[in-house]
Structure formats: structure tokens, C-alpha cells
Amino acid sequence: MLKEYKTIILEEQNSAGVLKLNRPKKLNAFNMQMLDDMLDAIDQVNKNDNIKSLIITGSGRAFCAGADLSLGEKTFDKSFDTKAKYESDFRRDAGGILSLKIYNSLKPVIAACNGDAVGVGATMQLPADIRIASSKSRFGFVFAKRGIVPDGCASWFLPKIIGIPMALELCYSGKIIDASDALKIGLINYLVDESELMKKAYEMSDLLCDSSAPVSVAMTRHMLWSLSAEEDPEHAHEIESKLIDSRGASDDAKEGVMSFLEKRKSVF
């Protein structure tokens, strides 16, 4: 275990940081303590050069059942929470703060969904690079059913992943879809049996990171997420030109070429 937290477990396994939501009796319901814990854990992973990726999963039979509703009718009333830690961001959405932290990760992020993922449990997976789900997983963007609107920057991420018509259908209706339907619409990349979930996550971590330069991976992650939103490719060309120029003179670039020519594994 890398560090102890109240609502999550953070471990290093197979050179990956495994962040496990850990409120199983509450179906890993999301609260402000979990936000604090996850933000810190992601920082820990980014700072650790021994960790090549971040895998987010859940303990027990759910991934995350959404926001903790134990406050009843005051759950989404921020004026009620007078002890908010983020005073400067008092009116900002907690799910969005988390999604932006994941989006800005320096390491590839893999969501390994082990069960129900509802509300913020579904939206926190959207910024992941790869989304894997077990056959027991279900997904629901149920915000309108609770009288609110999507959180977690879902209005930006979800249409990019599954298209606007399907995103509207899921958000308007709040219907729960199973993992097979999630695979059909592109919400997840891979569907596996429950017993194979973490094995697949580690395999994807190895595939993404084992033979690639970590700095190149980090740059590529942000280039594809951000530049794909541009109106035309001109800005992408400018950024790519600058980065290719700078990285081309790096030790990583020299190692990448020489390892290929010498038919050996790269050491970045």
C-alpha cells in the first residue's frame, strides 16, 4: 500500500497504481472525503516514477453507486454545506473537480468497472483512456431523475465518446444500461468476465506503457484529448511541430531509434 486513506485503497501492482474505491457497505458512494482521497492519490501516482499507469476500480459488488444521498433532500444543496473545504471553488461541482484531475493525469488512466456505476460513478470513468467493464457492470447517467444535470464534465466528455444523440438519450432518460449495451455504443472499450477484469487492466497497462517513453505518452495523452476539440487541424500541426522538434533532440528519441536498429527493448 502506497498510502492509507479513509475511503479508498491505493496500491502498486504490476507497476500500476491501483486506486480502489473502498466504501463497499455504501456501494462506494461518493462523498467529499472520497474526493479529497482520490485527488491526493492521483497526485501520488503522478509523482511516483515507478508507476506507469493508474487503474481505478471498486471494492465489493459496485464500482460507485453515485453520490452519497445520506443527507436526503440537502444532498445537492451546496448552501447547506457550510464546511466545504474548497472555499475558492465553493460552487464548483465535486465530480468535475475529480474528472479534471483525471483528465490532467500525467499517466495513462484505465477504468476497471467491477459493478454498478451510476451518476458520478459513471462520469468519473469518462476521462479514462481505456474503460474496461466486467459482465456485472451497469451504467446510468441518472441526474435528471434526481432533479439535477450531469456532473463530472460529462457534457464535454460523453458526446465525444458516444455521440450527441446517444448521450442525450442516456441523460434525458436516466436509464440503466448493462455492460453489453455499453460496449455496443462505445461507452466502454472492453467487456470481460468478472474474474478477468484486473488481469485485462494490467494487460492494457503493459500494452500502453511497456515499450513507450513515459514523457511521450504523457504528451500524447494531452495532445489527443485537447487538440481533437479544435475546429481545424492547424493548431494541432503547430503543437505537434514544436513537440516533435523538442522531443527529437531528447535522449528518449535517440534511445527509441537505436533500440529499434539494435533490435532490443528500449530503456527510457
What are the main properties of this structure?
single chain; 268 residues; 2-enoyl-CoA Hydratase, Chain A, domain 1; 7-stranded mixed beta sheet; 10 helices; 11 strands
Q: How would you describe this structure to a colleague?
A:
It is a single chain. The chain has 268 residues and is of the alpha/beta class. The protein has helices at 32-47, 94-103, 120-123, 154-162, 164-173, 179-184, 197-209, 214-227, 234-248, 251-261, and strands spanning 3-4, 8-13, 16-21, 53-58, 62-64, 109-113, 116-118, 130-134, 138-140, 176-178, 190-192. It has 10 helices and 11 strands. It has a 7-stranded mixed β-sheet, with helices on both faces. Helix 4 (154-162) packs across helix 5. The radius of gyration is 19 Å and the shape is globular. The two termini are 26 Å apart.
Summarize the structure.
Helix content is 40%, strand content 17%.
Residue fraction in strands: 15-25%
* Rg over CA atoms: 19 Å
Which secondary-structure class do the elements indicate?
alpha/beta
Top CATH class of the largest domain = Alpha Beta
Low-confidence stretches: 76-84
Tally of DSSP β-strands: 11
Write the layout of secondary structure elements.
Layout: E1 3-4, E2 8-13, E3 16-21, H1 32-47, E4 53-58, E5 62-64, H2 94-103, E6 109-113, E7 116-118, H3 120-123, E8 130-134, E9 138-140, H4 154-162, H5 164-173, E10 176-178, H6 179-184, E11 190-192, H7 197-209, H8 214-227, H9 234-248, H10 251-261
Parallel strand pairs: 3-4, 4-6, 5-7, 6-8, 7-9, 8-11
Antiparallel strand pairs: 1-2, 2-3, 9-10
Helix pairs in contact: 1-2, 4-5
